[in-house]
Every structure is written in C-alpha cells, then in structure tokens.
Amino acid sequence: MLLPGRRPPFDARISAPRVPAPLSVSHLEPGGIVLSEGLARQTIPFDDHGPRCDNPALFDALRKLNADGIPFQYQPQVVDAPARLMAWWQETGRLADTFSEIAWLSPEQWRITSIPVPVQGVMGWDGRAGPFAG
C-alpha cells in the first residue's frame, strides 16, 4: 500500500514460524466488519449506508478496534479494505492515531507493522489524500 507522508522503515514485529496470528480485522462485508483469528470468524455489525470512506458508524467501529490494539489485514487489491480506510482517514486528518497492519510473509509467518500518521513534506507528500479523494 502506498503510504504518503510516512518515512520507512516502520516499526514492525515478525512472528516466529508457526505462531498463530492474533485476532485481526479481516475485511468488510455488507453491514459487517469481519474479524478473524485462525479459522474462527466473528462479525461486528455496522450501519452500511453511503460511501464507506464517509460512513461515521464504520469509522467509529474501526477506531474502537484500533484503540483495542487489533491489527488490520493488508489487502492491496481491495479499494475499501479496512487498512486502506484507516490510512485514508489519517491522510485526511480525521484519524490522528497510529494503526497496526498485519500481513502474511508465508502461510506460517506474519508481520505486524505500525502505520504512523502522515506528516506534510515527508517523502514529498503535499497533504493530498489518497484513493478516495474526489
């Protein structure tokens, strides 16, 4: 994922092989935020009306999950994936917190990366927001 205004390297933690991944925000489905931990799944409902990037119920639910320390799965192919929404909300100034992103390095190993709030001027970022900008 492109992360304008943030300077790598980011703080990251890599698991030992075969250590189970923690509970994480997997993806969105109509009206629900899907959390996963191993093969277990649970869904947190939210009012899914209008564009997800402007949805206050979704924002509040994802912000609470972030405050609880739950990482967001890296999904570069999904435009409105929870991790991309969190980065967007950082870039627009709506979210002033770091969030954690989890990605799999192999089927048996994962990495959690802290995604800091962007800073104008860092890495040439001019303050314009990413994929949901009008």
Which short descriptors sum up this protein?
single chain, 134 residues, alpha+beta, three-stranded antiparallel β-sheet, 2 helices, 7 strands, 16% helix
**Unreliable residue runs:** none
Overall shape: it is flat
Summing up helix and strand content along with how strands pair, one would put the structural category as: alpha+beta
Query: What's the total count of β strands?
Result: 7
For the largest beta sheet, what order do the strands appear in spatially?
1-7-6-5
Mean pLDDT: 89
Report the β-strand fraction as a percent range.
25-35%
Structure overview:
With 134 residues, this protein is an alpha+beta fold. It has one domain (12-124). It is 16% helix and 28% strand. The model has no long low-confidence stretch (mean pLDDT 89).
Strand and helix map with partners:
Elements: E1 12-14, E2 24-29, E3 32-37, E4 40-45, H1 56-67, E5 72-73, H2 82-91, E6 99-106, E7 109-115
Parallel strand pairs: 5-6
Antiparallel strand pairs: 1-7, 2-3, 3-4, 6-7
